[in-house]
Design brief:
alpha+beta; nine-stranded antiparallel β-sheet; 33% strand
Length: 169
């Protein structure tokens, strides 16, 4: 995969269809994000590329961790989306003209997400990358407690980088 190129919408559509056809199955997928740089580095292009084993087509309310937390009074009932609206429940969300895919990370002990970091298209270390970020983004990246894996990822469709491949759980 060429990690310095931006994904086009045609290949993003193909990736989306692959994910949607793998409903409930675990697949390996890759995407990029652009964390916010500090004001001193506003002209620097920062990209984080993540590869993880995920599921698509799962209803958040049906996750065992959510049901257990509700049963233990550790959280309230599942509420409507805090932003956006369902385009195709429970797969895609529309928000401010952007389509997002809802993905759920595998909880498998051997399925740890991996990230690569790029500054102006050049691969860098996590520590170097962090020096360009706002203090809150830096803390999320470097603090193990702040960076706990979320039970859900909402990924911009155009940020998908690689066609998923099915994996064994």
């Amino acid at each position: 995969m060429d990690t310095t190129t931006t994904n086009n919408s045609l290949s993003a559509e193909i990736i989306k269809e692959k994910l949607l056809s793998a409903k409930g199955k675990f697949v390996k997928a890759s995407w990029k994000s652009n964390p916010k740089s500090s004001a001193a580095f506003k002209d620097v292009l920062l990209e984080k590329h993540t590869t993880a084993v995920v599921q698509c087509g799962v209803n958040y309310a049906n996750l065992s961790s959510v049901k257990i937390a509700i049963g233990n009074n550790e959280r309230g009932a599942v509420e409507p989306l805090p932003w956006g609206e369902w385009l195709q429940f429970p797969y895609t969300i529309l928000h401010k003209g952007e389509t997002y895919l809802r993905l759920y990370p595998s909880q498998g002990f051997n399925h740890i997400p991996k990230s690569e970091f790029f500054v102006n298209g050049v691969q860098s270390t996590k520590q170097e990358f962090a020096t360009y970020l706002t203090p809150s983004e830096c803390k999320k990246l470097l603090d193990p407690v702040a960076s706990d894996i979320s039970p859900v990822f909402n990924i911009k469709l155009n940020n998908l980088l690689d066609i998923p491949e099915e994996v064994e759980e």
